[in-house]
Write a structure and sequence with these properties.
By secondary structure, the protein is mostly helical. The chain has one domain: Orthogonal Bundle (Arc Repressor Mutant, subunit A). Helix content is 51%, strand content 12%. It has 5 helices and 3 strands. Strand 2 and strand 3 form a beta hairpin. It starts with 12 loop residues before the first helix and ends in a 13-residue tail after the last helix.
């Protein structure tokens, strides 16, 4: 049985949502946007609970899509720094709004939803 070719979604946001809603992606972007460029090890510590494999995979995907830059220095050991691009600065505004909302809910005494951590 032949499979029909996939037809691109007519909705412009579907691809962006698919990228951003992957586990850890927004957490990585939030960490880079609030703390500035950082090396892999520091980023891994800031995104508590993520494995090196998943962090590497997410960073590659974000770099391929123009949200994150990767700066490699040929030192011993090699120094790799990650940061956000100008494209990401547009999404950064949305993340800041989410932070404001979470602070407002916290101040009102409302429980801010907590994600269930999955072993990765």
């Amino acid at each position: 049985m032949r499979r029909s070719p996939q037809i691109p979604s007519p909705c412009a946001i579907s691809g962006l949502l698919e990228l951003l809603t992957r586990p850890w992606t927004l957490h990585i972007l939030w960490s880079l946007s609030t703390n500035g460029p950082m090396r892999f090890g520091v980023l891994r510590k800031n995104v508590d609970g993520i494995s090196s494999r998943v962090l590497t995979e997410r960073l590659r995907t974000l770099e391929e899509n123009g949200f994150v830059f990767r700066h490699y220095e040929q030192t011993i050991p090699p120094a790799v720094t990650y940061g956000i691009t100008d494209r990401m600065k547009d999404i950064e505004k949305v993340l800041q709004q989410l932070e404001g909302l979470s602070r407002k809910w916290h101040a009102e005494g409302a429980e801010v939803p907590k994600a269930r951590r999955q072993a990765v």
